[in-house]
Amino acid sequence: MAMVVNQWQENISADPGSQLQICGQEPGGTPGTPSGSTPGNDALSGDKIPNVDCMVCGDKSSGKHYGQFTCEGCKSFFKRSVRRNLTYTCRGNRDCPIDQHHRNQCQYCRLKKCLKVGMRREAVQRGRMSSSQSSPGQYLTNGSEAYGGQPYLSGFISLLLRAEPYPTSRYGAQCMQSNNLMGIENICELAARLLFSAVEWAKNIPFFPDLQLMDQVALLRMSWSELFVLNAAQCSMPLHVAPLLAAAGLHASPMSAERVVAFMDHIRVFQEQVEKLKALQVDTAEYSCLKSIVLFTSDAMGLSDVAHVESIQEKSQCALEEYVRNQYPNQPNRFGRLLLRLPSLRIVSSPVIEQLFFVRLVGKTPIETLLRDMLLSGSSYNWPYMPMQRDRPISLHYNENGP
Question: Taking every annotated instance into account, which residue ranges of this chain make up the domain NR LBD (predicted)?
Fold first, then answer.
């Protein structure tokens, strides 16, 4: 692994790193497409791209970038490193393997190999000055008034926001009856809506619908619980312990005192993550970017194109960074504080979320089955239900004004 150090220098520095670089914007081109032909990106537009492997990692090349045939991931990495004047340090012996499976493990050695195979720093700098190279700020929308009058919204964020299925706090009041059965069922129905909304949101944002179905399922399987926590915080979902325990059915099934205590600890962790997000006063645009970062994770198993997913996540990170810098200029640490919340989301146990919110509705139906069914369901979905617990299924519908 490599850590980012301060500024770019003529020779790659081995100074100790301070923080991990997380942002990799693809300024050229419209979201979701390679950046086209620029002074630094000399892929032959209009010509058939030769069947050449990336000279850096061996993945499939997308053309000639900055003087050498590379994949989109290595092109993005090299451009970001040069444009942001970054240097890295190697935690090994400066000879880490750089291939399709290890390219993200050491940024120092990856950059070293980029330079070794002939990628040119000056080509990146020339491209930076070209008017044909777009920046996140170029995609300013005229419809920012629709999202709280925010003066800065990139085109990418605007597309994310258009997919938002509900306004903040719309459903928060539905579960406030927390001491009776109706309140419990309202909690479960809200949870069902939040999960369904997360899937529908994903189906309507840039890039996700273009992925293979198996990749869509893999990404949602990996990220659904994190998306659920973000949605719970975004809509101010009530998380009082008593109705949650009742919804989980702990009152109806024997459980040892130790397991009850452990379960309540999991509830507390869930509550803490939601409260920390609410304390940051995350706005809708930030939530959209955070959800996109969470969704497009290369940690998902079985992805057919890991580099493509990584590049989308980088776009999401940089869109968030640019937005925060323009929208909150007096909060220089806000971007970092937002990103630091994301690793903590995985602390929330997905089996506990299932037990708390979904067992009452779907019994032993695996969440993965529900996710796949939702992906294939179109804009409406009849939620499975337990006949002894409800006299009707939950029918969910999606539209731009809310599910």
Answer: 152-378
CATH H superfamily, domain 155-175+182-376: Retinoid X Receptor (1.10.565.10)
> Domain 63-123: what homologous superfamily?
Erythroid Transcription Factor GATA-1, subunit A (3.30.50.10)
Written as six digits, the tokens of 382 are 């009849």
Q: Tokens for 198?
A: 């997360």
Of the candidates 135, 84, 150, 189, which has an alpha carbon nearest to the alpha carbon of residue 287? 150
Task: Dump pLDDT digits (tens) for 77-124.
Answer: 888 888 877 778 888 888 899 998 888 888 889 999 999 898 988 888
pLDDT tens for each residue of 246-304: 555 554 566 667 777 777 888 888 889 989 999 999 999 999 999 999 999 988 998 98
**Domain limits of the chain?**
63-123, 155-175+182-376
Phi/psi at 195 (5° precision): -65, -45
Cα distances from 218 to residues 223, 229, 369, 375, in angstroms, run 9, 18, 12, 12
The alpha carbon of residue 211 and the mean position of all alpha carbons in its chain are separated, in whole angstroms, by: 15
Q: 380: part of which helix (H) or strand (E)? A: strand 380-382
